[in-house]
Design brief:
Pfam families: Isochorismatase. The chain has about 220 residues and is of the alpha/beta class. It has seven helices and eight strands; from the N terminus they run αβαβαβββαβαβαβα. The structure holds zinc ion (ZN).
């Protein structure tokens, strides 16, 4: 997977100019139910954890914002007419995978929590803190202009794609971490088609290795 050589080189240039570029990391739905053994397991879903942990560790160490999205469905939802029941609120399946690093500073975006709501995109979600009013995802992520948003997680052909397309629409510079996402592939071409749609929209493909190598400079 991935784009042309030029596309792979581009983020290195941009990441090197650290002065004016705000960076943020969005980790999409790395929950037990989407990993092997889960209710809606994505093939090799757990393989995203190691590369994502390297990004999470780096962002946390640099004091850069890290966001985790999660599916958080009620037991009874129209969403389960399309999919087997998964990520039901307050169940073990809805918890983040135990191997995923979870820095204290990371903020969780909750989505898909109503009976009618699919919640594919984290931008449909909210940040919940105590009794405060929920904060919409976009408000939480802040100013899109001048922000490079790095995205990885599960699954490439659904929530990761929805996250990337919405992020571009809102004006973020979006970098898909191609080694840190996996697809459901209900149909064999789903992943390829999702990647093509993202590329066409302006999402830049990179890898965690490239992003981190560039960031150290
Ligand atoms: Zn769901």
């Amino acid at each position: 997977m991935g784009g042309t050589r030029e596309e792979e080189v581009a983020p290195i240039r941009i990441l090197s100019q650290t002065s004016n570029v705000r960076r943020a990391l969005l980790v999409v739905d790395v929950q037990n139910d989407f990993c092997p053994g889960g209710a809606l397991a994505v093939p090799e879903g757990d393989l995203v954890i190691e590369p994502l942990n390297r990004m999470i560790e780096y962002f946390d160490r640099k004091g850069l914002p890290v966001f985790f999205s999660r599916d958080w469905h009620p037991e009874d939802t129209e969403h389960f007419k399309t999919w087997p029941a998964h990520c039901v609120q307050n169940t073990q399946g809805a918890e983040f995978h135990p191997d995923l690093l979870k820095p204290i500073s990371a903020k969780v975006i909750t989505k898909g929590f109503s009976k009618k709501d699919d919640g594919y995109s984290p931008f449909e979600g909210v940040y919940l803190k105590g009794d405060d009013w929920p904060t919409p995802c976009q408000l939480l992520l802040g100013q899109p202009q001048g922000t490079s948003l790095y995205i990885g997680g599960l699954a490439t052909d659904y929530c990761v794609k929805a996250a990337c397309l919405d992020a571009v629409k809102f004006g973020y510079s979006v970098y898909l971490l191609t080694d840190a996402c996996r697809a459901v592939n209900l149909k064999p071409m789903d992943e390829a088609e999702a990647l093509e749609e993202m590329r066409r929209t302006g999402v830049v493909f990179t890898t965690t290795e490239e992003a981190l190598k560039a960031a150290v400079i």
